[in-house]
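Annex B, item 7. Sequence and structure tokens for protein A, then protein B.
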Amino acid sequence: MKQYIEQNRQRFLDELFSILRIPSVSAQAEHRPDMYACAERLCTLLLEAGADKAGIWETDGNPVVFGEKIIDPKARTVLVYGHYDVQPAEPLEKWRTEPFEPVLGPDPATGEEAVWGRGANDDKGQLFMHIKAFEYMLGKSLLRHNVKFIFEGEEEIGSPSLPAWIKKHKKMLAADICLVSDTTMISEKVPSINCGMRGLSYLEVKVTGPNKDLHSGHYGGAVANPIQVLCEMISSLIDSDGRVTVPGFYDKVVELSRSERKMLARAPFDLKEYKDFLGIREVRGEKGYTTGERTGIRPCLDVCGIWGGYTGEGAKTVLPSEAHAKISMRLVPNQRSAEISELFAKHFKAIAPRCVKVEVTPCEGGDGFLIPVSSSAYKAASRAISEVYGIEPVPSRGGGSIAVLAEVQKILGMDPLLMGFGLERDTIHSPNESYLLRQLFGGMESIALFYSYWEPTAL
């Protein structure tokens, strides 16, 4: 496929840029029209690549793009999943380029060419690889599998509408494997395939004290300050060993055996390089586990946002009426998002002092999952990546969450196969998101080879 990529390089970039320019931010209501614009553009790209059909399907939220190419009803079918919604670009002042005006430019550290812009990696760049690999295989008469595409517009907000839509269209979505590129590799020198991802429970908490903001001179020291109370409550959620203190939080966590931990430890990890990249002096986390284990096989709790009182320019001597925080808990397989959310809410309300009122509102969530590394699809993916990168990929566990994939696994009865080509340097969800051309094109090659190496019929 290398020659095909070289011959079509500029066209590929023009097409990718056409979807990167659309600010399809699912978290912000004003971008609702952009969701449809991006979905329509993806339909066009699928049809131009050779899909038999591609269209927009309504959900209770943002639309789903579905397309397919049926080569042989008896052949194995690959369901390609991706998402076209992106994270908000804020803080805008931190971007070196305009987030929705993609550009091709060098990486400041290495000089390698990269695409810069929101969605360059997550997930527009990675789902685009599948469209082009499909185009190549079909155009060269090499495609022996049926291929279905499902691109959703709500992954970044927890895919609230997709499970119901999948249940309603189970027959249409029937396939043998769900192929996904929405994850990262350990590094370009150590390619990897994720064999599991963590789940998520994300909540917002509100602590209310007095019925209105108060003068801090008249009432300070006599009335509870909700911000201080909230900080004290949050501080109590993790103990000195880095463990979450919510009762029952670890009840269903499966401890990995020594041999399983040893297998995952095959992935090389440079702690100094890790700290230097993040600009920190020390790492921190659950006692008894490595940094890689803390982000792959262990659950955690983090405060993702906190606010209250006056935060504008200058001083305002106010004792606030309310304080708020957004809290995420990353979960490992066997932990259930709904159960953990209930445990958290019960505990958080129980530890609140009588001087405040507490509300806990679930925002989004989903369960984690594991996939077997012994499957024929995993082996085909491993062989494909080995050929492109010159080294066998190692199995890894992803620390992030793609909440809907556990639902796909349960509803459709198929395992996800996570062929992700992002790198940590891509800074997804942050300003200056980018995607190395080497990874973009290497992903296309690897996906095309996967179709070549996975038998179209079960042996």
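Protein B:
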Amino acid sequence: MKKIIAAMVSVLAFMVSAAAQRDFGGTVRFDRTVFDFGRVDLRDGAVSCSFEVTNIGDKPLNILAVTTSCSCTTPKWTKGDIAPGKNGRIDVSYTNDEGPYPFDKALTVYIDGLEKPVILHVKGTAFKGRKK
């Protein structure tokens, strides 16, 4: 019985810490910090995803800049104020032309009011499929 309770406490602690990793400084919440494309065929060209940003603070916030670890990854983000309780987005496009190989690209997000930037990741495995 003690083992079952200990296991349940461990799972609960993991769930709480996973949720906390998406909230930053009591100011902003991301719907995710990692987007996994899974397997992507090089022949399909660029792939895209989005990260939703929610202002959980009591003042407007701004996404000041988003930088990437590679020129193969291009971000576009909500410009201007995001009011308390409202959402913004960071849209990301990965060119998918450098494989085949696993990839993990970092995006560094600078938000006013946060002392440290938020690091997001897009990842997956690029492969070259057979010709049809």
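Comment on protein B: Strands lie at 23-24, 28-30, 34-41, 47-55, 63-68, 73-77, 87-94, 101-111, 118-127.
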